[in-house]
Amino acid sequence: MAGTLAEKVWEAHLVRRGEGGSPDLLYIDLHLVHEVTSPQAFEGLRLAGRQVRRPDLTIATEDHNTPTLDIDRPIADLTSRTQIDTLRANAKEFGVRLHSLGDADQGIVHQVGPQLGLTMPGLTVVCGDSHTSTHGAFGALAFGIGTSEVEHVLATQTLPLAPFKTMAITVNGTLPAGTTSKDIILAIIAKIGTGGGQGYVLEYRGEAIRALSMEARMTICNMSIEAGARAGMIAPDETTFEYLKGRPHAPEGEDWDAAIEYWKTLRTDDDAEFDAEVVLEAADLEPFVTWGTNPGQGLPLSASVPVPADIADEGERETAAKALEYMGLTAGTPLRDIPVDTVFIGSCTNGRIEDLRSVAKVVKGRKKAESLRVLVVPSSARVRLQAEAEGLDVIFKEFGAEWRNAGCSMCLGMNPDQLAPGERSASTSNRNFEGRQGKGGRTHLVSPLVAAATAIRGTLSSVADLDLPHEIDITTFDGTPLDGVGASPLGESVVDLPIPVAIGSAPSGSAAGQPALR
Amino acid sequence: MEKIHTHTGVGVPLRRSNVDTDQIIPAVYLKRVTRTGFEDALFAAWRGDPSFVLNQEAYSNGSVLVAGPDFGTGSSREHAVWALKDYGFRVVLSSRFADIFRGNSGKQGLVTGIVSPEDIEILWKILETKPGTEVTVDLEAKTATADEVTVPFQIDDYTRWRLMEGLDDIGLTLQQEDKITAFEETRASWRPKTLPARHLPSVEIEAARPV
Counting CB atoms within 10 angstroms of each CB, which of A211, A410, B52, B211 has the fewest? Predict the structure, then answer.
């Protein structure tokens, strides 16, 4: 029977098909855990005298609460410290692998899975975090779950789930210069709304999607949840295989061949039918920014702040007026004239190496606008190391930006990285909810390129607004190293260095590019 | 999970619509690591108001919440359900619930019954004119009775069965143990395992500090 990508992955994980209105029971391949949504799940296991069924399919990291400064000192905020200490104790008690603050593989949970090569095509991936949809970029069925479900997966490695609907989102053509995958997803959410994907798994398709790097695909899938969707997926292809090959947990030898053979079957059949379809032309896109307090309230940068009175729908009109009041914006103001106080570059949406490279390309040799602060927070410690090996940190520091340790940071301000009341940010993160980045803080969601240009000019800007020298190619951000900044592929830069930290037994074997076994 | 066939307790009329999970429990309480002890956080922003329904003695030990439409929208935080349960609520009746909240409730043994807006209005009137009136919720018959008025409610059969049998999802799934084990035996060897851990050589990370 013809099937969509999502249906194929679902079917391949059926432990038991539901009968008489009961849900299907699905096997979970990979369970990612962090400090905020796991303590009560572990407590539940303890109370019921249960174990973690498959510690070998579970991995934990610290990200939401962790400070991005002084990570070698005790965490100042006591409740944050308690949450992290609780995760450490739970990981030890239940035998779960944990990458703690200070470990090279610590970082945002949605970066850690891919960079270790644990996230692969055709898997089911869950985490007590709504941005788990990120992993769908590999052709995995990945979605966020509640704490009861975290406990359920820990205890049984399965989840009872009711079937979903499927939606195809096709992006045709080629992206114009200066636009990125972030602009694609912001445009999609603006088009279908924050509830448009409810009950659906989205599949992103088309020429513009195929042309994207893995990092850029992750950005798109990451924000599927902001359209209300359970998950977003992209069929695996050579780009996916290339990203995975040689990663520490990627299959090797015969396993690799068998995996590739299977992964190539993971595509929607030509005659399969989706429950809904949306089509976008990439050529129509330009840099997108949000003006309101939900991710669907976005417009092309060349537009102006909307006039609520012009909005026909009464509910939307009221929502827009309320959003403008919170955002401190006047209807009709050109978006390009909005000055910001803080530029935040980071998060599970846009804190990966390619994002940092693209920002570095734009800001290299320049100075930030004096009126604002710029925070650059890599998505993982490994990404930070890679960026430092490429000299990106020096570019950022010379630009006037603050170079920080890895974590969720100002995306949600659970750590000290917060906006002050009334402070306005251009942020490469994923949610512009009221108070998300700090009580009273005002967030404009932007791409890394818009963030970089904004940091230079002081108002919301695109790279087209900059007087860029010709040799800087701003049309492609495919992960190619910067000119003259001594880039090296992931891994080679970290040879022959001391091996500390991490949970478990002593490490062994650390030749260049070779996975160290612990 | 305790079996629930019927529940009788004081009904609390909450004449508000779109009560989102931020109103049920504000984000500031989410840093706790326990699963219990959230009773003080329930409706925290409203509890300071002496006229708020739970601050009136007749309702203060209520266990059946009768709320307006779109109850439990917004964030997926399960803490919202814990806070209601910790306070003592066993049942919430509303004409419309947010999906995730309803799902979380079912997993925690909190009954969510869908009652027509007209019947919600009738229940509100009874509970407001006779504060302290008890409501009896019968899962078998799918009815709620207050002061000799009985109204029907809807709940999906699977959740209802689980509540009546006192089966939590985990217990239920563990009955499929043999099927899970059989499935595990078919998993391809290329599928990843987190243990034994493999990674690139570790490196000492120096803390970033303000320059």
Answer: B211
